[in-house]
Specification:
Elements (H helix, E strand, L loop, with lengths): L6 H13 L10 H12 L15 H10 L1 H20 L2 E7 L4 E6 L1 H8 L11 H4 L3 H8 L3 E4 L11 E9 L5 E10 L7 H15 L9 E6 L11 E6 L2 E5 L1 H7 L11 H5 L5 E8 L5 E7 L29 H15 L4 E4 L6 H11 L7 E5 L8 H6 L17 H4 L4 E5 L6 H13 L1 E2 L8 E2 L3 E6 L3 H6 L5 H7 L3 E3 L9 H11 L8 E2 L1 H9 L5 H15 L5 E2 L6 H4 L15 H15 L4 H8 L3 H8 L7
Parallel strand pairs: 11-16, 11-17, 12-13, 13-16, 18-19
Antiparallel strand pairs: 1-2, 1-5, 3-4, 4-5, 6-7, 6-10, 7-8, 9-10, 14-15
Helix pairs in contact: 4-8, 8-24, 11-12, 18-19, 22-23, 23-24
Length: 623
């Protein structure tokens, strides 16, 4: 996040504004100047530092519980930004719509420094409380904003360089703010871009549930952006527009006032539902590629929690497992039925999640719950209540009926702990106690509740190395890993051509009458696929989306790097080239082959644009 003006220019602007009462236009960015004016009009005195008190622990917990949905929706992005924040001496911050800090993650050293200026959970960072700052300005301006050093209203905040973007729900209502803050002495070049990309992903995720009874239009002028966080989304209940995202309103040239008054025929005419992307023209003459998703009937619609994973476009479906993996799956089923935990290891994208679901589906617990928990995305402040649940009245703001917690939801079924290697040490001790006692003690209750679940854990990391480094409990390792299953990477499978055909069939290529030529099958089978099944599936989906019905796809349908016959080198052993290096090099090659088009490269790799932006443009990768 580069400062908008030099330090001398900002100091000159401050002197003119605060000492002489002049507007200092042109010396600082217009949003900064407007914020200074608002703060001055509210009676804030630049010479009198803000005096804010953090919420008490019970009040903070109540606030966090009240915004539980927002915290869940933003957790993947906060988790993804956490590594960048640690490397740049920064922190990632989530606030509510009033600017109250809900969560903070990142560099603990800088977090300690930030706490000295009250940048910590439970403290308000609205303009009225703490003057000009990125969080408060983003709330007022409803746009992404960076505030650097002396651009802050109060002098103590000059140590901060902040970038924030507001989060809008599908009704255009402010839900909160995502912010990345670091020390002003460091140039945080990409902070604002990273935050904006993360917010786009969050707002896109808002539409994953709650609209099954509505007709949804997902569209964009660029076919390659369909299905990404940049696509426009309009939701109609009957014919009335009830929800939208910012990209959609920009494309059709309306604002949020269109909600509840605009109708589907006024935008798209009499469009018939179709899950297949097709070329359409809006009533205003805009040519777009659009998927029209029909509402589900009441008998078909299910809640998000009960919906089975029938189709996973980026996964490795059970029918496509190799013969060796099928044998391992049979062993896993026998172990689950004997109540023996299973540890599944494999590179990113090898289908560990699908393997666990397949084992559950084939076991004698198939009719019972399958509860998946990503250990890498559990913030410390949510661990106890989310995993272990709580009783009625356990704390202020607790739900009247209490909450079972995820571990109790897995009772009689299968508990899948993904990325177990990233579980915090404190949580490891609690989990070990549950596994030993087969009982969970909810918050607010001294009475343990018996639980019965089969356990599958998964990781792409070496737990043995983590144990030696003191980052994973040895006693927990022995408890969860009496039997280890290694999933092979895609490049190690013997008949990859058959796999390509099977995946193409499963994705609907044959049903659409689109055929892969022998040359294309050979090239795909010969590639090394550092992203494994996820990468291959993403590329096949992109090819299918770009194809015409009945077309035979030849080499011209492949991305440029495939047409050149280049492949990403894969190391013979992890000591020579770590997986993070291979992943980063694959991303760089894809980006170069796509002429710098981040969206196209991300679709080719089967990953989010924010992931590609973060790992390649920042020159790093974590595998």
């Amino acid at each position: 996040m580069a400062p908008a003006a030099t330090t001398d220019t900002v100091l000159s602007a401050r002197q003119r504004f605060f000492n002489r009462g002049e507007l200092a236009e042109g010396l600082v960015a217009a949003p900064i100047l407007r914020s200074w004016q608002r703060c001055a009009e509210q009676g804030l005195d630049v010479s009198d530092p803000p005096r804010v008190e953090p919420l008490s622990a019970p009040a903070l917990r109540e606030l966090q519980q009240r915004h539980d949905l927002l915290r869940r929706m933003t957790r993947p992005e906060i988790d993804a930004l956490r590594a960048d924040a640690k490397l740049t001496d920064s922190v990632v911050i989530l606030t509510d719509a009033a600017g109250l800090v809900l969560d903070m993650a990142g560099n603990t050293v800088f977090a300690d420094r930030a706490s000295k200026v009250a940048l910590r959970p439970g403290v308000p960072w609205s303009e009225t409380a703490t003057g000009t700052n990125a969080i408060g300005a983003a709330l007022v301006e409803r746009r992404p904003i960076a505030v650097h050093g002396a651009e802050h209203f109060f002098n103590p905040h000059r140590i901060l360089a902040c970038a924030a973007a507001p989060i809008l729900d599908p009704r255009g209502v402010l839900a909160g703010v995502l912010d990345m803050s670091g020390h002003a002495s460091v140039r945080h070049v990409h902070a604002l871009g990273l935050v904006r990309l993360a917010v786009e992903q969050i707002e896109h995720r808002f539409f994953e549930q709650g609209f099954s009874h509505c007709t949804m239009f997902r569209f964009h002028r660029d076919r390659e952006l369909l299905g990404t966080a940049r696509e426009g989304i309009l939701v109609f209940e009957g014919e009335r527009l009830v929800a939208a995202n910012r990209h959609a309103l920009q494309l059709i040239q309306f604002d949020w006032s269109a909600l509840d008054r605009l109708t589907a025929p006024e935008v798209f005419g009499r469009a018939e539902p179709s899950g297949v992307p097709r070329q359409m023209r809006t009533e205003a003459g805009l040519d777009v590629v659009c998927r029209v998703i029909a509402p589900q009937s009441p008998g078909i619609a299910r809640t998000a929690k009960s919906r089975p994973p029938a189709s996973r476009p980026h996964g490795a479906p059970e029918p496509l497992l190799s013969s060796e993996t099928q044998a391992a799956l049979a062993r896993a089923v026998r172990l689950l039925e004997a109540d023996v935990p299973v540890l599944v290891q494999g590179e990113t994208g090898t289908g560990k999640d699908m393997f666990a679901r397949a084992a559950h589906g084939r076991s004698n617990r198939a009719g019972q719950p399958f509860v998946a928990i990503n250990c890498a995305s559990l913030p410390e402040s949510l661990i106890e209540s989310e995993l272990f649940g709580y009783e009625e009245g356990a704390f202020t703001g607790a739900r009247r009926q209490g909450q079972k917690g995820l571990l109790r939801q897995a009772d009689r079924g299968v508990l899948f702990l993904d990325e177990i290697g990233d579980m915090p040490l404190g949580l490891q001790a609690r989990l070990l106690r549950v596994l030993q006692d087969k009982a969970v003690s909810p918050l607010g209750s001294g009475r343990p509740v018996p639980v019965d679940f089969a356990l599958i854990c998964a990781t792409h990391r070496s737990l043995g190395a983590l144990v030696k480094a003191g980052q994973f409990r040895q006693d927990l390792y022995f408890r969860i890993a009496p039997y280890v299953i290694d999933l092979p990477p895609l490049r190690a499978l013997p008949d990859r051509r058959a796999l390509v055909r099977a995946m193409w069939q499963r994705l609907g290529g044959a049903q659409a009458g689109v055929v892969l030529s022998s040359d294309v099958e050979d090239r795909l089978a010969a590639h090394d696929w550092p992203g494994n099944f996820r990468q291959l599936s993403g590329l096949l989906q992109a090819m299918l989306a770009l194809a015409e019905p009945g077309q035979m796809l030849d080499a011209a349908a492949l991305p440029p790097d495939f047409r050149r016959g280049t492949e990403t080198p894969v190391a013979a052993g992890p000591a020579e080239y770590p997986l993070s290096h291979l992943t980063r090099e694959a991303m760089r090659a894809a980006l170069e082959a796509c002429g710098g088009n981040v969206s196209r490269a991300a679709r080719q790799l089967g990953i989010d644009r924010s992931t590609l932006y973060r790992r390649v443009l920042r020159g790093r990768g974590d595998g």
